[in-house]
Amino acid sequence: MNTEDIEKFFEKKATLNEDYVKISFRQREGFYGLFLKDADYSYLKAKNFWRIVPQSQLEAYKATKNGNLARIFNGAEFSKLSTYTESFD
What we know:
By secondary structure, this protein is an alpha+beta fold. The protein has helices at 3-12, 41-46, 58-64; strands spanning 20-25, 31-35, 49-54, 71-74, 78-83. It contains three helices and five strands, in the order H-E-E-H-E-H-E-E.
């Protein structure tokens, strides 16, 4: 996916730093995560990179709000984004 498609998803369906998102990839297993809007958000977004806290680290992130628990992913590898509730419909 390109930056514009990912931004449209967040404008219409989800909120950064709040909503869990199912991220599907082209060549690997998808997962649930939380997109973070951190200090370097604009810089990363310009290069289509996204800081995401994976599901395995969500509880620790909720407790500490430590951005170092996130990993950086290339948006070009995403095939689809859906909200947590949409993934169960």
